[in-house]
Each structure stands twice: as structure tokens, then as C-alpha cells.
Amino acid sequence: MENYIIEMLHITKEFPGIIANNDITLRLKKGEIHALLGENGAGKSTLMSVLFGLYKPEKGEIRKDGKTVKINDPKDANDLGIGMVHQHFKLVENFTVLENIILGVEPNKLGFLERKKAKEKVLALSKQYGLQVDPDALIEKISVGMQQRVEILKMLYRDNDILIFDEPTAVLTPQEIDELMEIMRGFAKEGKSILFITHKLNEIMAVADRCTVLRKGKFIGEVEIKDTNKEELSKMMVGRDVNLTVDKKDNTPGDVVLSLKGVTVPSNTSKKDAVKDVSFDVRAGEIVCIAGIDGNGQTELVFAITGLEKQSKGEITLCGKDISKASVRTRSKSGMSHIPEDRQKHGLVMDYSLEDNLVLQRYWQSEFENKGFIKRNEIRSYAEKLSKQYDIRSGQGPLTIARNMSGGNQQKAILARELDKEHKLVVAVQPTRGLDVGAIEYIHKQLVATRNKGKAVLLVSLELDEVMDVSDRILVMYEGEIVGELDPKKITVQELGLYMSGAKRNVGKENEHA
Amino acid sequence: MHNIFSPQKLLKSKAISAFTAALLAIILGLIFGYIIMVVASPENSLDGFNMVLVGGFSRLGDVFYFATPILMTGLAVGFAFKMGLFDIGASGQYTMGMFFALYVGFMWKLPGSLHWVACIIAGMMGGMLWGFIPGFLKAYMNVNEVITSIMTNYIGMYLVDMWIQGNSVMYVPSKTRTSYLPGSAQIPSLGVANSNVNVSIFIAIAIAICLYIVLNKTTFGYELRATGFNKHASHYAGMNSKRNIIITMVIAGGAAGLGGAFAILAPSIIPGSSMTYEPVSVIAANGFNGIAVALLGNASPIGIIFASLFISHIQRGGTLAALFGYKPEIIDVVIAVIIYFSAFAMLMQTTVAKYFKKHRKNKKPESNANEDPVVTLNKEA
Question: Which tens digits make up the pLDDT trace of B294-331?
């Protein structure tokens, strides 16, 4: 008999209207690295939340070492030795590394914290597994990579031997990803069992022993990595053959559309500037991509360009017109389209219907307004036209409430709205985040088509594949500065990683002397 | 294409579930109100409770009369709420409106048919002014409107008391209240015997319908609701939120101010007298009742019309329950409980929706899967 440490058998979890997990079986062997593969929305997080006691499944059972267990809350999960590194870290920003690690399981004598004892244990663990941390540093002062190590140490400190990593590489540079893989292999050798949630095939091929694939809430298969390849896995994940290379002909860029000179933006969270003295141009007919690890000033830079926040210094021009102090509406009228990073927060009024959302940037134009009154019929037919043209699918047509639409269709609605309005520049921020492969393909195609029509595209992306495939020119942002200007045809992902981690730069300070 | 009369669509329709929710909230409120009456005086409870329920029907004129001011303050709170603003200041705006109306009523000499209209307009201006202050502070100084409107409630009330006591034309010290308004300043009565009901109820309903149209058919209403649902998206879409906040609060204040004017300008059933204002340093309760009315009416102007009538009806019935020996305080408690529960209407709405969804699913689970093919598993972060 196989030696499974955790078995989740025939798990079914329903939410109103959808079955998030439909008869899913996941079996984790002792000492293996087991990947859980699936697109966004496949049910990976729901399944892990069931294992973690956050959701109660309608059907199915969970076994540990062959014995049925009940997991009612995360404490039960912890008692069974299950630990998890969440995609978004759960750390107290203004506590030290040590305080975060011992949070909830503080060693004490008569109620007094035994800080020294705790520190010794943390340092020992840190040494044993090669997880470099400074126990006395504040979380807000350390890098994202180190924060992740703190999360891992939290699990080890609690003597967990079943470790779940939820999309752990999303926030890391290629170099840091390699390190993490090494650490995971080390754990497996120690006899710990690892569940590795991801949608990145390269990482699975590199590190996993076996893989369970989910698609649309259903169990698709369980495969041995050594018997499979990337093509087969991607087919299992998506359900069809996938072509992720973007068809793109060479294009000669035209006039400068967007130009930034010495733009500096203060940060909302710290006293430092989030964007420091950034200058660049985007020309008509080119896609310029701002690459970088999340949180290096991209969001603030886009806010300054689109007018959602004010820059403290510098000048922004759009088609030769100074828009440094212009309102959001003026910028929009001058030809700026903005596909925002957070589609639910900025891009859509979730409680509005699809048709009302489609005119969010245009409801005041004479096409849709007459003496202060809304032209409902015009809006309805416009929404029907756009839905057809951009293949926006929704349950009740133009009257569907945005909240009830899938993420892909929400994003298509935003795309349709921003590309159909008069524009010379499209600022697209992580336009494919959280979407399935079909929607990603579609959005990439639309962006390239926009560029081919002679519009300027400024793309901000965290996905390296997207950066390499879609862009004509890459600007790398690190700690609020542009540190590299690269040609995607001439560099490798590894090199790009060096720029993203700040190890290398080819513009900025060094060039100033020249 | 869709049959709107099929039961599924009916249950899905927003208005219906809001209505069911309000109804459930009212029933729960009534049950608890009855329990309190039983505790207070078991032998009279049935008669007393019956009076609370149906007593209003024998005083229909008064039901409409007392509904008018709370309809207006309800509109004030509800309208601001659509933009995501909580206008607790309806009381102060109401009192300010009352004072402005009184001032024009006493101090200006105008021909009969013009006078009361001028008083009403003055009342509206007073309310608008008192709505503008928290609106301006919110828009330009980012001061929470709840805090400022609580303060403007007190400032307004004390200012009005001071102004009235300092005016020898308006104030009669020996009676510690205002003197009688000239007949020309009083709103024409509808002529219902023993009731003060007057044409202002029609004005109030017309205003509710106007606000409904503004909210749902105009670009301003589109901006206003968009801001209420998601202020980040409205900022992203380039809407001028500062201007909209101020306009919304001015409109809300105007509605509450009208409520005050309607209350004080109502015709008296005793010839030669009028409504009077007594400066006793108490914040006008009608402002707070407006919050309950707005909640029960789901912040919709049309819903608020019915909510104000219901609450007025219960209040009339409650007053009549005194005939069965219930002390006014007990009646107040019963009414408060009913209003309190009614205010849960919004919470109930989601509960009701959930219940029906579950119920429907149990009945025919297979239809559920096919119903919304576009809904994907968006539970994942």
C-alpha cells in the first residue's frame, strides 16, 4: 500500500450557483513535492481552504496517515502539522521577524515572553535550512524574498511537516525562484511533504515529483512528472492545445505620444518617494513594457500618468500637450485610455450593469446624454454592439450586473470600453492578471492590434513571459527608478531578472556622468 | 425575451426582494412590539396591539399629515445614502428649514397665495445651507460627514432657539413658544375633519418622484450612484466627486429643510391659531425618524414614500393605544422596537435572497447549474 500522509478524497464544495470543487481527490505522499496545477478559477484555493479548515466541504473526507480527520478551523490544521505560505503574506508589518514567527505560539514562563529561547530556536532553524533572516529586523524594512522566508520559518517553528505553498513565486525574481526551489528540495529530503500550488509549468517540471491537475472545479488527473512534459500538462490544465506565442510583426514607432520628464511621486505608505525622477517616452505604434517586481513604484507611476494621484515633481506630456496638472477627465478626453491594475476597485462599478459600465468613460458625451438625462436606448444598443464586437459574455446581456460576470468577461468589458473610446495611448496595467489562458491570448492580440493601428501602448506587467512576448521595448523598474532599457529580442529572462533585482543597471546614475 | 412574471425572475428582481425583506422586518418588529405590550399589561395587550395595527385607519388624515415631515427627512437621508454619505444631520437641516420658514412667515408681508410658498422656499434654502456645511467640509477638508452633521445638529438647534428667543415678533416669552403664524403663511388644508393634513403631502410625494427621476434617469444620478457604489471607480472615470458631494448634501439638506417647513407651516384645526415652535434645546426627532424611514425604504425615494406612511400609521395607532391604559412611554418603546426592527430591512434583504436561492436549489438542483453559464469560480483570490 502507498504511504500517503494526506488524502483528500472526493471533496465537493459548492458555493451558491457554482461548484468550486467537484469530486476532487488529492493524495500527498510523505517526502514528496506535489504540485497542484490549474488556471485561476480552477478551484485550487478552495481545495486548500478546505484542507486548512476555512471551508467545510459538502462531501468527501480528509485522511491523515490513513485515519479520517475533521478539520474545522486553521488551528486543527496546525495541530495536524499542516502549514501554509499564503500568496499574500500574513505578516505584521511593524513587528520584527522574530515576533512574527512566534506570533500565536509564544514561548512563555508564567506569562512572560521567553524571547531568548525563541530566538535560539529560530536561528537554529534558519541555519539548518539555509533560510537567511535577521530576527530583529522589522518586516516593513526587509525584502519580499526575506518576508517569504519568514513565512516559511513560521511553518517550521510550528513543527509543521506538511507545507503548502500558494503561488510562492509570483513575487520573486528568477534568481530568488531558483533559491526557493532549492529550499523546497531540501525540505523534501528531510521527509517533509510539500504541496505546491501554481499555474507555471516550468516550475513544476523543475521541482515537483507528482502533479494533480484541476480544471473548472473538476479533477483532471494525477501524473508523475518524470512521465510527462509541459505540452501535456498545459493541455490538461486548459483542456485544449495552447499557443501562447504572440503573433507580432515588426513595426516602426512613430511620433512621441507620451513623454515623462523627471517624474517623482511620493509614497502613501512610507516617507520615501515611490517613484524617483523617472523619464521616458512612448511612441505611436510601439508597446513599451514596464517590468519589475511588484511594489517597485509601478502602481504609483501609473497613478501619476493617469491623474489618479499627483506627482510632486516632473512633467508629463501627451501628444505634446502638458498634462502634468490635468484632471483625470481632461487626460481621458485628450486621448488616454487606462486599463487599471485593479479591475474591481477602479475599473468597474461592480453593482452597475454591464451597459452602465461600458459608458463609464463616455456617459457625458452627447451620444449618450441629452440635457442632463441619460439616453438609455442609445446606451443599450451601444452595449450590445460592444458585447458582440469584443465577445463579452454575460447572463442577461447589457443588464447583467458586473459582479455576476466572470473575471475574463469583466476584463473584456474594460478593454472594450477603453479601446473603443477615442485614444492615442493605452495604459494597460497587468491586463491579464488572474485570467484564463483563452482570455490572456485574446487580450494580448487586442493590445498588439492596437499598436498596429498606430496607437502607443504602455504595458505594466509582472509576468515575465508577457514582458518578453508582447513588448517592443522593456523598461525595468527597481525601487522607483528606471534601471534598464532593454530590447526583448536581445536579452534572456535571466538577464532581465538581474535588472529586476537591482543587481544590474544600464540607465540612470551610471550614465549621468557621461 | 424573458418572462418577467415567471416566479424565478420575480424572486430575482431587486424590488421584490427589497419588499419581502421590508415586510419580514416589519413582521418581526410587530411580534417584538407585541411581546413588550404583553409584558407591560397582559390583559389589555390584544386590544392595545390591535389599536397599534389598525388604529391609524380611523385617522387617515393624520397618518398622511405626520408622514409628510418624515417622508422629507427620509428622502434627505436616503438620497445622501445613495452616494455613500450618511446624513445624520437631517435634524439640524430640518430645524433650520423650520426657522427660515418661520422667519419669512412672521417678518415678510406677502399676499396670501404667495406667502406660504415663499415660506416653503425659505425653509428649503435654510436646509440647503445646513446641508452645504458638512458637504463642503467633506469635499474639501475630507472631514467625516457623520461627525460634522452631528455637530451641525446641535449648532443648528441652539442657533434657532437663540434667534427665536431674541425676536420679539416671533417669540412670546410668557408662553415660552412662538406666537401664531398669520393665516397666509399656513399651507392650505385638505379639509379633512379634525386633521391638519394639507397639500404639502402632495408636494412631498412629487419631490420623492423627482428625486427618483434624478437618481435613475440623469447623468448626475448616474455619477451619484456610481460614487456611492465605488468611489475609486468614479475617481478613475474622472467624475468630479467634490462637486457631487456638495450638490448631494445640498439637495439632502433642502429636502430635510422642506420637512421642517411643512411641519411648522401646517394649518391648525383651531381657527386663528397655528403650529408653534418651542425652543427647548431638544434635537428634532423627525430628523432621526428619517434615518429609520430611509432604511426601511431601502434608500429608494419610492420605497421611502411607503415607509414614511407605515411609520406614521404605527405612530398614530400607538397614540390611540393609550385608550387602553398604555402609558405614552410604553407606546414609544413599542414604536421604537418596530422601527428598530424595520431598519433591519436592508440586512434582511440579503438573508431573504439567500433563503430563496437555497430553497430553489433544493427543489431543482439541476436547473441551477445551467442557469448562469457565465458565472465561473471567482472564489479564488
Answer: 988 888 999 999 999 988 998 888 888 888 888 777 77
The 10 Å Cβ neighbour count of residue B306 is 17
Q: Please judge whether A43 and B377 are an interchain contact, meaning their C-beta atoms are less than 8 angstroms apart.
A: yes
Unique residue bearing C-alpha cell 412629487? B206
Q: What is the pLDDT of residue B325?
A: 80
Put simply, whether the predicted model's pTM sits higher than 0.90 gets the answer no
Strands (E) in B190-313, as ranges, are none
Of A245, A243, A247, A244, whose CA–CA distance to A452 is shortest? A247
pLDDT attached to residue B99 = 96
Question: B249-291 pLDDT, tens per residue?
Answer: 999 999 999 999 999 999 988 878 889 898 888 888 899 889 9
Closest C-alpha among B295, B228, B246 to residue B75: B295
Position B376, amino acid: T
B14 touching chain A per CB within 8 A: no
How many helices (H) does chain B have, and how many strands (E)? 16, 2
Nearest to A38 by CA among A207, A255, A195: A195
Residue A428 forms beta bridges with which residues? A339, A459
Q: Does A239 touch chain B (CB under 8 A)?
A: no
Neighbour order of strands in the sheet with A313-318: A273-283, A256-266, A313-318, A321-322
Closest CB from A20, A331, A372 relative to B220? A372
pLDDT at A207: 92
Whole-angstrom distance, CA of residue A366 vs CA of residue A372: 10
Minimum CA–CA partner of B230 in chain A:
A349
Give residue-wise pLDDT tens across range B122-143: 999 999 999 999 999 999 999 9
Contact B135, B248 (CB under 8 A): yes
Place of cell 418651542: B278
User: Which residues of A225-377 form beta strands (DSSP E)?
Assistant: 256-266, 273-283, 287-291, 313-318, 321-322, 336-339, 369-370, 373-374
Which pairing describes strands A321-322 and A481-486: parallel, antiparallel, or unpaired?
unpaired
Helical axes B14-40 vs B285-296, angle rounded to 10°: 130
Residue B160, C-alpha cell as written in the block: 434657532
Q: DSSP string spanning A11-35?
A: EEEEETTEEEEEEEEEEEETT-EEE
Residue B60's alpha-carbon distances to B54, B204, B228, B268, B301, in angstroms, are: 10, 17, 36, 17, 22
Q: Which residues of A are less than 8 Å from B373 in CB distance?
A: 395
Amino acid at B203: I
CA distance B106 to A425: 63
The one-letter amino acid code at B322 reads: A
Residue B327 sits at the chain A interface (C-beta within 8 Å) = no
Q: Which residue has the higher pLDDT, B5 or A403?
A: A403
**Is B374 part of the contact surface with chain A (CB cutoff 8 Å)?**
yes
Give the Cα separation of A498 and A483 in Å (integer).
Answer: 11
- Give the number of beta-carbon pairs within 8 Å between A and B: 124
Helix axis angle, B219-229 to B60-82, nearest 10°: 70
Per-10-residue mean pLDDT, chain A, length 514? 84 83 92 89 85 89 91 89 86 90 86 88 89 88 85 91 87 82 91 89 90 91 90 84 72 90 86 89 94 87 92 92 92 94 90 94 92 93 93 87 86 93 93 80 90 94 87 92 91 88 73 41
Q: Which residues of A touch B217 (CB under 8 A)?
A: 373-374, 376
Residue A338: what residue type?
A: H
3-state secondary structure of A8: strand
Spatial CA neighbour of B279 closest among B189, B347, B200, B178: B178
Contacts of A482 (CB under 8 A, 6+ apart): A278, A279, A280, A475, A476, A507, A508
